[in-house]
Amino acid sequence: MPAPVSPYIEERNGGLCVAGTRVSLDSVVISFQEGDSPEQIVESFSTLKLAQVYGAIAYYLENEETINEYIAEGQRELERTVPPLSQQAPELFARLETARRHLGLKRT
Predict the structure, then answer these.
(1) Domains recognised in the chain with CATH numbers
(2) How many Cα atoms occupy the beta-carbon half-sphere of 100 within 13 Å?
(3) Runs of H (alpha helix) within the chain
(4) Is the dihedral of CA 27, 29, 35, 41 positive or negative?
(5) What does DSSP assign to residue 69?
(6) pLDDT tens digit sequence for 39-90
(7) Quick check: 57 and 38 in contact, CB under 8 A?
């Protein structure tokens, strides 16, 4: 996917990152979509400056359809290449499921 040009975002190793950092655009966008404020995102990613987060969010909002598809494709690729925990570590998965039921939590 050719990424639109921005001083806040760079393409590196086939992915999009906040320019000058190792923080993926996906990470910032998903935090933003989950309701985190730019200040909360800076707290989560201490290498980012507030201006970089605002720039990344502006980039996302200007290219929302393209970036949402980019994130969805990354998720599909992850699902194709990384087996679920229930297959990777069935014993751990079973213990987590037991703990989840004990706490009354729903699976997400």
Answers:
(1) 9-81 (1.10.10.10)
(2) 10
(3) 25-33, 38-44, 50-62, 64-81, 85-88, 90-103
(4) positive
(5) H
(6) 999 999 999 999 999 999 999 999 999 999 999 998 898 888 877 888 888 8
(7) yes
